[in-house]
Amino acid sequence: MKISGRSLRHRLQLLGNKLSRAKYYHGYGVHSPFVYGLVRKAFMPKKLIEGTGSTLYDSLRANGVATKRARQLHNTLQYIEGKSYSINEVGGDLSILLANFPTEQLRKAYEEAKSKGLTLVVCQPYLNRERQNEVRALIDEHRSTTVDNRAYILFFNNRLPKQHYRL
Hints:
Elements: H1 5-22, H2 33-43, H3 55-62, H4 67-79, E1 85-87, E2 94-97, H5 106-116, E3 119-123, H6 129-141, E4 145-148, E5 152-155, E6 163-166
Helix pairs in contact: 2-4, 3-4
């Protein structure tokens, strides 16, 4: 099988991306107790946290979010002890912007979440080049912790130090 130069470069980039993320596999190498707990208690479990209902999970599934990602975001809301959530608007303790949220409005939503101290979730940050560039700019200027879980990026607007984790 012959691999073109472009295809080979693309495969090497993907391999590099996977290797850079591998060091945080299952929370290993994460030096933040908060993010370690997030990985272990919200991202890794195969079920919803018991006794928390399934309202957020059901809403995300109805909006086309994959089962695994919906479960992770539902568990994240419980982990941060959030009481409310919003989808495609800023307003809940966990404000989730889905892939259909306009890229040109990401910065405005980010600024609003930051001013209110809310956790912002940007789903499918690598959907296209424009969205990717906007999200990277937000990460660079963000003053607290961000967690990139491939399918979404969490922007925590609290007292956590400036750190960026690529899981």
